Every structure is written in structure tokens, then in C-alpha cells.
Amino acid sequence: MSIKVVKFGGSSLADAEHFRKVAAIVKADPARRYVVPSAPGKRFSDDIKVTDMLYTCYQMIREKKSMQEVDEYYKNIIERYDSIIRELGLDFDLSGEYEYIKNAMLHRPGRDFVASRGEYLSGLILAKYLGFPFIDAENVIFFKENGAFDQEKTDRVLSAELAQYRHAVIPGFYGCAANGTVKTFSRGGSDITGSIVARAAGATLYENWTDVSGFLMADPRIVKDPATIETITYRELRELSYMGATVLHEDAVFPVRSAGIPINIRNTNRPEDQGTMIVSSTTHYDTERVITGIAGKKEFSVINIEKDMMNAEVGFGRKVLEILEENGISFEHLPSGIDTMSVVTATAALEGKRERILQAICRTVSPDSVTIEDDMALVAVVGRGMVKAKGTAARVFDALASKGINIRMIDQGSSELNIIVGIADDEYTDAIRAIYEEFVH
Ligand code: ASP
User: Fold this and answer.
1) What are phi and psi of 293, to 5 degrees?
2) Which residues line ligand 1 (CB under 6 A)?
3) Cα distance between residue 394 and residue 392, in whole Å
């Protein structure tokens, strides 16, 4: 029997019209049994997400703004929910909840509690509208003493709770800290809740409904109308999101991944689109397309170290990396030659530490030269199809060469899942377009 857990993001619950779409989606498939909502998001581009409004409210109280001012602002939040209730024609009064939250806020119960009320209230309304029981995340999702998510306890309590209900609404984003207070995940954390619920429910599929029809092969701000990725593996996704492609919270893959549950990214406004399937592994791959996606980031720096006979010096690399470690810097890539070693890091990570690092390198490994080069962008070409296809690297380099783009660094992961090239920051968009055209058109 198939069980689907469906999570709806903020834009999917921004107003009454979207609540209707959400209900239609849930009711269209009896396997869609457990629903995880976000707080109402933006209705238009200048709008403010309810979560942000709640953070502002909390901040106003901390800054000791007058009661009247806080109340005025808080009324806007109430109105977001009340307009949804009204327009859905629900016979539902949340005034007791609003009052309780306001009083709690004034008595400083913590920033996380305040932020979590966005999901809590939207969950109450959605449960009422769907006619499903409401399970408060506070009673079923737990964090450990050190603040990390407590998977073991959550799995145990949540699966026992879910087993009692055919359907339920469980608000996203928060749970219960070890000291009994409400704690949230980081921003966008309802994605994580959906994944946790899918795991505890023993779901066959985790559907994550948002406002796009899945992952695109490239950033649409750079490539016009990029193609949608139909199937992507967790590992490919990790590579792409690390390099800046975002749709899903990074931590959302872990609970379902180890349980072997695929994630399907779907569009609430276009339910007919199949979206993107995220799976552990695929036996088939898209033979027409060798690559799955292209992503990248700007503003990297390269620390170039040269020393004659470096290759014979045991411990050279370790000493350099130790210097970075002591300065709290993680490196992204480590391309090396016979007598050269380059360390690629985010430029921001070097801020205020450049001199210290250069001096430490000179002192510790006595190089012939050491310099830092800035303004490098990294572009990752990712695809499980590369393992089988010959000439992929050649095509990437040709595409770049044909646009006169100079490659400053090349790194191919040993798993043959990606090829990463370093180019000048100001050639970033041209590089992505050139590679996309080469492989997709
Ligand atoms: N409402 C929260 C946020 O805006 C969590 C979420 O939507 O996933 O970050």
C-alpha cells in the first residue's frame, strides 16, 4: 500500500486560493495521507512572509517598542490568517490562539517559539479545512541536548502517533528542544519536517510541493527557459545544491535518503507537471543528455604555493592544510602539480586572515613563492551519465574555448559525477550559457 507524505511550502499556502489548490491536490490521491504545511509565504513579490513578520514582532518586543506598536504590527499577521479562514468560508475562530501567542511573546518565550507559530496556525487551518486531525510537531519531533535533531526518539514517538491516524496535518519547521521549549530548524526547515514525517510514516514517496516544476538544469536567471531535470540522484543533487542550486533545504535529504524514500518536487500551481524525482540510484540514465545540471558560484580565491622539489617533501600538504585549519578555513579544491600546490577557498573565508596565512605558510614550509589570486568562479557540470559517455570533458573545454573563456582550474571528482572548472568571475554567465548550449541544445 502506498503512503505519500506531502509538504507544501509557503508560496503554496500564501492565501485562500492556494489553500484550495492544496486541498484539491491532497484529495486527488488517497495515498496522500500526511500533510506538512509551511507558514503562509509571499502573495506577490513585495509581500512579507508570515515567518519574517513573526521575527519582526519578536524583535520589536526585544527593542521595547510600545505595546500599541507591537499590537498594530501583530494585527497584520492575524489578518493574514483571518482572511484565509474567511475566504475559505470556514467556521473557525482562532482568536484564543492569537491572544495566547501575543501574551507568550510579551513574556519572552524565545525567538524560535514565536517563529514557529506561523506553521502552527497554518497547520490548524489546513487541518480544519481538510477535515484531518492536527498533530502538533512539538509533541512528536525532538532535538537533543546539543541542539541536533534526535532522529531515534522522533522516529519512535512519531511513527507510533501516525499509526493511530489514517490522515493528519503536522506543521513544519519546529519541534521540541531537550529542555521542553519549542525549537525550529534553520530557515526553510519545513522541508526537513516533511522528510522526517515521510520516514516515520514508512512512506513510499515524499512529495515536496512548491512553486516551480522541479529542478532546472541551470539557473533561469542565466539560461533562458532551462529544461527541467526529470530524475536526479541524491549525490548529484548534493553537488548541484552545494554549488548554489536551491529548491530544497539541504538537510531535507538525510532522513528519507537512508530510508530509501524518493522525493518528488512538484508545483502546486501546475499539478499536472511531473516535476523532479530525487532517487538513491537509477539504473537508467537519460542517454540523450550526458549531464544532469550545471551550477556554480562566484568569488573564490586560490592560494598558489610553489616550491622546487615539493613532491619529495613528505608532509608538505598536511602542514599547509593545518595552517588553514588553525584559521578556521575549509578548502573547496586542492589542485596540485609536481612542485605546486593550490588551495581554493571562498574569498569571504579569507577576510582579515590573508597576511596571517601567508606568513604562516612562509614560516612553516618555506616556499619559493606564495600568492593569493582572487575573482575566480567555479562552475560544476554534474551528471551520472558522464561515467559512460566519452569526451564529456572535451566538450566542456571546447564550449568554453569557443567563447574565448580561459580555464584557470580543472577538477574532476574520482566518481566521475562532476567536472568543475575555475574561470574568471566576470566570465561566469558566459561559461554557464556556453556549457548549457553544448549539452542541451
Ligand atoms: N516558514 C519557515 C521559513 O520561512 C520554514 C519554511 O517555510 O520551511 O523559513
Assistant:
1) -165, 170
2) 9-10, 38-39, 49, 51, 118, 172-173, 187-191
3) 5
User: Are 275 and 316 found together in one domain?
Assistant: no
Distance CA 95, CA 78 (A): 9
pLDDT in tens, 33-68: 999 999 999 999 999 999 999 999 999 999 999 999
Return the closest-CA partner of residue 126 out of 263, 10, 42, 283: 10
Q: What is the pLDDT of residue 151?
A: 96
DSSP codes, 280-336: S--SS--SS-S--EEEEEEEEEEEEEE-TTGGG-TTHHHHHHHHHHHTT---SB--B
User: Residues of the chain with pLDDT > 90: what percent?
Assistant: 83
> Ligand 1 centre from 113 Cα, in Å?
13
Looking up residue 47, the CATH number of its domain turns out to be 3.40.1160.10
Residue 415: CATH number of its domain: 3.30.2130.10
Total domain count, the chain:
2
- Looking at ligand 1, which residue's alpha carbon is closest to its atom 5? 188
Give the helix/strand (H/E) hosting 205: strand 205-210
**Residues 373 and 391 sit within 8 Å (Cβ to Cβ):** no
Enclosing domain of residue 378: 293-440
Q: Is the pLDDT of residue 416 over 80?
A: no
Q: What region does 375 belong to: left with phi over 0, alpha with psi -120 to 50, or beta?
A: left
Q: Does residue 236 fall inside a structural domain?
A: yes
Tell me the per-residue pLDDT of 55-112, one tens digit each, with 9 for 90 and over. Answer: 999 999 999 999 999 999 999 999 999 999 999 999 999 999 999 999 998 887 899 9
Is 258 in the same domain as 320? Answer: no
Is residue 225 within 8 Å of 213, Cβ to Cβ?
no
List of residues 6+ apart from 372 with CB closer than 8 A: 301, 302, 303, 304, 350, 354, 358
Q: Ligand 1 atom closest to Cα of 173?
A: 5
How far apart CA 365 and CA 96 sit, in angstroms, is 68
Q: Give tens-digit pLDDT for 280-323.
A: 877 655 556 789 999 999 999 999 999 999 888 899 999 999 99
Atom of ligand 1 nearest to the CA of 52: 4
Average pLDDT over residues 382-406: 91
Phi, psi for residue 166 in degrees, rounded to 5: -70, -40
Distance 44 CA to ligand 1 centre (A): 17
